[in-house]
Amino acid sequence: MGKQLSPSENEIMRVIWQSGGKTSVAPLLDALDSMGKKWKSNTVVTFLSRLVEKGLLTIEKNGRNNIYIAAFTEAELRKLQTKSFFEEIYGGNVEGFIASLFEQNNLLLMDVEKSKIRVGKLFSNQFLNDENKKNACTTADVIKKALRKEITYRKASINTKRKTIIQFEREIKDEERRMNELSELIDKLRIID
Asked: Residues with Cβ < 8 Å from 19, sequence gap 6 or more?
């Protein structure tokens, strides 16, 4: 299942899952109509044909009617789509995936802490194929590397801010010194008057 679904195909699949995993065209049209989708029968049949071609639906004949049956549950399909996306975009590289989340500030340290169990399940042995299992670090190692990278980034940021603060402190001291010199000069001018 390498092909992603269009938004319309996703909607049709949701209706089918809500209908117990199977439906025919007429009830599907009624359900879509109740959702505000005024699609014609030919449009829906075209989407159903595409979903059959993609292997997401099977067809069972019931007289002259086709019954469309979901080949996967919604959870199974999402898992396959996630795996496909992960393989296609990141080549199965868990470390690259997590690092890119950090780089985009989409994953904070607290997020990692909260989701260690979920990340562990996501990248468990059942998610990675054998080739990727050999190349991938353990989930804990990946998280540690990503956290180290985040810590290094944050330390550099703190050091930059410290340097800025030190510079401001120097500037403040210089200004205070100048103010004192001006005050002394004013006092001297008062004495002369």
From this structure: 27, 28, 31
